[in-house]
Structure formats: C-alpha cells, structure tokens
C-alpha cells in the first residue's frame, strides 16, 4: 500500500506550532503586566499639607519680606482655578488633612467660637460665631441656614498663579490651595471685595493690618512666591502698625 501524502499533516502541525507561539507570547505579556501592577500599585491622589504655614512674629515677617524676590506678575492670562485641584472651584471633592477633615472644616473649627460639632462627625461645624478679621463684624453661623461666612485664601489662588504657581506641578498647587495657614473664615462681602487683589490694591480694617501682612509674607516666603514693588511697599507699611516687642 503506498504511503499517505504528508502535506496536510505538515500543514496542521505548522498551524499548531504557530498558534502555540502566539498563545505563549500573549501569556508572557499578561504575566509582565500583572507583575508590574503588583510591584507598582496605582498612585493615590496627593494629600493636602497637614501642617499649614505658621504665623511669624513681626520681626521675622520684616526679615522675610526683605528677602522676597521682586518681579512683575506673569502668566495671568492662563490662570485656571481648577489647576489648584478639586474643592476650590465650587465642585466639592476637597482632599482631607491628617485629622480626616478638609481644610475648610479645620478652618471653621479654628476660627469660630462657641462651636458646636455634629455628634456623628467631629469635622462638621453645626453652629458657632465668627468675629470677622477683615471687617470686625460679629457673624453667627448655622449650618442649616444661609451664611455670610466664606473661607478666603489670604494670598489668593489667582495671585499665587501670577507670582510663581503657574510653574508648579499640579500636586504642589493642590497642597498650596489646602494650606490652612493661608485660609481664614471671613465676612462674605469682604472676601468678594478682596478677590485676588494684593495688599497694594485692597486691605482689611486697619486693626488687622499687622496680622494680615504677617500672614501674607509668611505664605509668599514659604512657597517661594514673588512680590511686586508696590505690593512690597504696602506690606512694609502694614507691618509698621505692629506693636514693638516688649523690652525685658
């Protein structure tokens, strides 16, 4: 009996080998991706700065002011509030600080007196009273009623953008936006009047000039932001209202 033709058998064998090679390659790629995923877990969103910029005394503030770099504002036309992360564009989603509260919540707890917190959530302020630093007005707060209180960035996000933050990473801008040392609970109208103005364009009541200038200088110094010449002059004028240190 003559031998069977081997062409068809060879074709089936070659097809089997080709399929095996493809499956082996796919398996190798899958294993590599799986290994990388296990070795490098997905990055978590950047955490907010839990410390906050401390408020220096007047002498330290004067020294820090002298060391600030004077420069013209720049990149103002490209400012985007959303570039500072969620929470400050009115859409919610603020990151939490080390204590589990958001920067807004910590500022409300810090700046209000006669504070009553929710039993189920110690971050939530139900009521309290604010003596507004900008206008000096006494403002009651009730979480369930319309409020005349807003949280202000002393160095506004827009001002920060113009004086250096436009060059920062998204993570650094988010940390800046949630720096509780740059945040104050204030009267709504005063906050809106201030907007993103610098101290040569807007100032709070005279009694608050010293603390305002100290806080402004501390923020610009810590975050490496620049000042304009007129801004620096205004800050020096405001620091001049600080009481001299008591002789001992």
Describe the structure.
This protein is of the alpha+beta class and 248 residues long. It has one domain. Helices cover 40% and strands 11% of the residues. The protein has eight helices and five strands. A three-stranded antiparallel sheet has the order 1-2-3, with helices on one face. It has a two-stranded antiparallel ribbon with strand order 4-5. Helix 2 crosses helix 7, helix 2 packs antiparallel against helix 8 and helix 7 packs across helix 8. The chain is globular, with a radius of gyration of 29 Å. The N and C termini lie far apart (123 Å).
Q: What descriptive keywords fit this protein?
A:
single chain, alpha+beta, 3-stranded antiparallel beta sheet, 5 strands, 248 residues
SSE order and pairing:
Blueprint: H1 7-39, H2 58-67, H3 103-111, E1 113-117, E2 125-131, E3 138-142, E4 149-153, H4 157-162, H5 170-177, E5 183-187, H6 188-194, H7 209-222, H8 229-239
Antiparallel strand pairs: 1-2, 2-3, 4-5
Query: Which range best describes the helical content: under 10%, 10-25%, 25-40%, 40-55%, 55-70% or over 70%?
Result: 25-40%
Q: Which percent range describes the beta-strand content?
A: 5-15%
How far is it from the N-terminal to the C-terminal residue, by CA? Answer: 123 Å
Indicate how many domains the architecture comprises: 1
Which spans have pLDDT < 50 for at least 5 consecutive residues?
Answer: 1-5, 21-49
From the structure provided, what is the oligomeric state, counting identical versus distinct chains? Answer: single chain
Radius of gyration: 29 Å
| Mean pLDDT, all residues | 84
Query: What is the SS-derived class?
Result: alpha+beta
| Bulk shape | globular
- Number of contiguous helices: 8
**What strand line-up does the widest sheet have?**
1-2-3
How many β-strand runs? 5
Task: Give the helices and strands as they follow along the chain.
Answer: HHHEEEEHHEHHH
């Amino acid at each position: 009996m003559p031998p069977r033709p081997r062409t068809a058998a060879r074709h089936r064998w070659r097809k089997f080998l080709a399929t095996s090679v493809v499956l082996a390659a796919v398996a190798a790629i899958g294993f590599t991706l799986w290994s990388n995923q296990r070795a490098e877990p997905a990055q978590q969103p950047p955490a907010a700065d839990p410390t906050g910029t401390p408020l220096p005394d007047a002498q330290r503030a004067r020294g820090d002011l002298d060391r600030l770099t004077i420069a013209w504002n720049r990149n103002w036309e490209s400012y985007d509030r959303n570039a500072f992360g969620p929470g400050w564009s009115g859409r919610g989603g603020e990151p939490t600080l080390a204590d589990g509260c958001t920067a807004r919540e910590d500022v409300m707890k810090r700046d209000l007196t006669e504070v009553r917190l929710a039993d189920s959530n110690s971050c939530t302020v139900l009521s309290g009273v604010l003596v507004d630093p900008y206008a000096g007005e006494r403002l009651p707060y009730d979480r369930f009623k319309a409020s005349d209180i807003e949280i202000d960035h002393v160095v506004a996000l827009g001002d920060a953008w113009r004086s250096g933050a436009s060059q920062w990473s998204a993570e650094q801008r988010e940390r800046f936006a949630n720096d509780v040392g740059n945040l104050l609970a204030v009267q709504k109208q005063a906050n809106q009047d201030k907007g993103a103005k610098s101290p040569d364009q807007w100032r709070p009541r005279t009694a608050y000039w010293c603390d305002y200038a100290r806080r402004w200088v501390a923020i610009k110094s810590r975050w490496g932001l620049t000042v304009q010449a007129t801004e620096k002059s205004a800050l020096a004028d405001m620091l001049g209202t600080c009481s001299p240190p008591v002789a001992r």
